[in-house]
Amino acid sequence: MVGTSDGPTNCGRVGEVESVTSIVRGFAPAFPVLQPSEGIGGEAVYLPADPAAVLWGRLPRVGDRPIATIEPGRSVVVDTVSHEGILADQGSDPRAYFGRHGVDGDQVLADAIEVAATRRRDSLAGPHIVTGPIAVTGADPGDLLAIRIDELTMRAPYGVISTRHARGVLAHRSGFDGDYGQFCAVEARDGRWFGTMPMHSDPLRQASFPLNPFLGIIGVATDTDTRVSSVPPGLHGGNIDIRRLTAGATLFLPVQVPEALFYVGDPHFAQGNGEVALTALEAPLRARLTVDVIPRAQVSAGLGRPVGPFAASHGLLIPTGLDEDLNKALEVCVRNAVELVVSLFDADPQQAYLYLSAAADFNISQAVDQVRGVHGEVRVADFAHRAATELARRVLERA
After folding, report:
1. Contact 62/139 with Cβ under 8 angstroms?
2. Where in the chain is the domain with CATH 2.60.120.580?
3. Does domain 20-27+40-139+151-244+255-290 have CATH number 2.60.120.580?
4. DSSP 3-state assignment of 110?
5. Which CATH superfamily does the domain covering 297-396 fall into?
6. Three-state DSSP class for 327?
């Protein structure tokens, strides 16, 4: 469970043309917003999402100056802000945007207000705000960076779902094209948090869905001369949008540059596999992360070939496949899954392939981020034998 700090009409136009977003009437916050620096305790390094500590729509590259440096095995607390509510087509003013939905000014995050007021993104950049980069002492290309998500705390009792840029799965269909979205309130029910949204102009016709917060973007810097867009995921991780990366999961990323220079962003309260309209329920999170390094020698000794980003989460081994073609993304994911089963459980490749067909799931992570994503779900408990390599031990102990 994540912690907290204890009939629709169209919006008006502000500044640039604003995307249509249905207004929720009578909004009552389920909990106060978690402002920067509030509730910080312990010895973990704290990194706020202030304008000097974020990139907007671009990802860190080799040679970028880190906002902090941590030793392997140390924890860091990172604030993230959502791009929803601060984009130009929403007026670039989160106080005004969320105020139209009944959110008081003091219940809008100060860091979101400051980023919107002081930072700009280029027209070819993605929408996401990423906090970082964060250097990890001793991490080198060829190593694996292991990022454990220890805790995710909701920073606001609301969020936004949207479709725009003709990027949703049905964007070419009349009636589903255009730019529009929905403000969603958070409410507590039977000890759990739910998102709520109207489904019709009749206010009684609503839907609610359970919240399972995760970070859509977790990545390492690219070995490139320029900062790449935050939209497509890749070998660096980035916008992989895997809903299984909730608190307790560990993501393993191949280090691309010295000191890794990792970053996080694109916080979500909930997402369906596929993320078909374009966004999840976008909303800000505070993340407590523990970062470790698996040396290149252990990676080489434990894997027959590179497999890209993968994760261990709640009893599951989670391989990924990424490609502009969804069918190829699935093929890559299956190949990576075979390699992980062979390497971590001393399996025969053909037997691993047959096992995956009978017992594993392969899901569309997202189909809207230029590069499509597929992730597998392999139950660790299914295997009676584990490989004796250091890599197998360090991966499987986190599942």
Report:
1. no
2. 20-27+40-139+151-244+255-290
3. yes
4. helix
5. Acetamidase/Formamidase-like domains (3.10.28.20)
6. helix
Start-end ranges of CATH 3.10.28.20 in the chain?
297-396
Distance in angstroms (rounded) separating the CA atoms of residues 218 and 233: 10
Give pLDDT tens digits along the chain (399 positions): 334 333 333 333 233 334 566 666 678 899 999 999 999 977 779 999 999 999 999 999 999 999 999 999 999 999 999 999 999 999 999 999 999 999 999 999 999 999 999 999 998 999 999 999 999 999 999 999 999 999 999 999 999 999 988 889 999 999 898 899 999 999 999 999 999 999 988 777 899 999 999 999 999 999 999 999 999 999 999 999 999 999 999 999 999 999 999 999 999 999 999 999 999 999 999 999 999 999 999 999 999 999 999 999 999 999 999 999 999 999 999 999 999 999 999 999 999 999 999 999 999 999 999 999 999 999 999 999 999 999 999 999 999
State how beta strands 129-136 and 310-313 pair: unpaired
User: Cβ distance 333 to 319 under 8 Å?
Assistant: yes
pTM above 0.85, yes or no: yes
